[in-house]
């Protein structure tokens, strides 16, 4: 029979037992662990300071004038008036030449020259046809060129201003015909030329040319 007091008998470990004392569980650390290192990308460096624009870039950014000056606008409308007067002058010339056929026949018969087998009526008809055709061509030419080049001139094309100046000199021939309207046309275009070459107009053409820049 086993003696309960026998020291060789193993005894259960416990708080009241005689065996080795059991160490208490370690207390938890109240300090939380440090967060893991961030896995994102590093912050972008600040942008470098902007450099001032170069001198050439400032010149290239020149803005063209938005509207022509008053002198250019008046010159434009005077050329439109000149085109209208050219049409009126041509119509008057055609009407007068067509109505003078009978007078031309009478003059040809009175002269009695060599008509090379043609009658006076045929010669008069040929003369009237030539004058009417010439009047129509002149009418169309002046009406178109005045309006066309005046349009480009108003937009700041210096070459159109030069062409209009040359055409105005050539239009002095209209003083010989037109029965008064030719004179009005010439006067209107001369005033337009003067306005185109005044200082405000020249400054406008120069500004438009500078805004376009040199061709590369």
UniProtKB/TrEMBL annotation:
Q: Cite the record's Pro residues compositional bias ranges.
A: 22-52
Q: Where is the composition biased (Low complexity)?
A: 53-63
Residue ranges of the region described as Disordered: 1-63
Q: Which domain of life is it from?
A: Bacteria
Which positions, given as ranges, span the membrane? 76-97, 131-152, 159-176, 182-198
Keywords in alphabetical order, please. Answer: Membrane, Transmembrane, Transmembrane helix
Indicate yes or no for the key word rRNA-binding: no
| Name of the protein this chain belongs to | DUF4064 domain-containing protein
The species this protein belongs to is Leifsonia soli
């Amino acid at each position: 029979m086993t003696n309960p007091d026998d020291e060789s008998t193993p005894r259960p470990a416990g708080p009241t037992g005689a065996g080795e004392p059991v160490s208490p569980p370690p207390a938890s650390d109240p300090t939380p662990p440090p967060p893991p290192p961030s896995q994102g990308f590093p912050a972008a460096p600040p942008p470098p300071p902007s450099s001032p624009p170069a001198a050439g870039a400032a010149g290239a950014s020149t803005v063209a004038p938005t509207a022509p000056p008053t002198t250019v606008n008046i010159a434009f409308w005077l050329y439109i008036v000149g085109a209208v007067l050219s049409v009126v002058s041509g119509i008057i010339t055609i009407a007068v030449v067509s109505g003078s056929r009978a007078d031309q026949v009478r003059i040809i018969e009175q002269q009695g020259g060599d008509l090379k087998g043609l009658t006076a009526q045929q010669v008069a008809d040929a003369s009237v046809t030539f004058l009417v055709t010439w009047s129509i061509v002149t009418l169309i030419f002046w009406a178109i060129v005045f309006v066309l080049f005046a349009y480009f001139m108003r937009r700041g094309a210096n070459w159109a201003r030069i062409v209009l100046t040359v055409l105005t000199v050539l239009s002095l021939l209209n003083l010989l015909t037109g029965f008064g309207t030719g004179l009005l046309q010439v006067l209107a275009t001369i005033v337009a030329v003067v306005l185109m070459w005044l200082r405000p107009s020249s400054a406008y053409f120069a500004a438009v040319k500078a805004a376009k820049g040199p061709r590369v």
